[in-house]
Design brief:
Helices cover about 65% and strands about 0% of the residues. By secondary structure, it is an all-alpha fold.
Length: about 80
């Protein structure tokens, strides 16, 4: 199986298979191609590390609201 280079693609593919050998092959293939600047983050996230304090959900809602042109108050109804 081929990983197109994005971490999200890798994550989807490894979560979609039950076979450990296939997961190992996917991860190895990804790590061989990942840019050096992203290698550490990829390993950190693959071993269960988390990104904390990087983005607040309120900030994300505001950006999405501005991007798609839907008033922020519309999102509050979904919570």
């Amino acid at each position: 199986m081929y990983v197109n280079g994005s971490f999200s693609s890798l994550y989807y593919l490894i979560s979609d298979t039950q076979r450990v050998e296939e997961k190992i092959n996917l991860i190895a293939s990804y790590l061989e191609r990942v840019p050096r600047e992203e290698f550490g983050w990829a390993v950190h996230l693959l071993i269960g590390g988390r990104c904390t304090g990087t983005l607040r959900s309120s900030q994300l809602r505001q950006w999405v609201s501005e991007l798609v042109g839907i008033p922020l108050c519309s999102y509050r109804d979904w919570e």
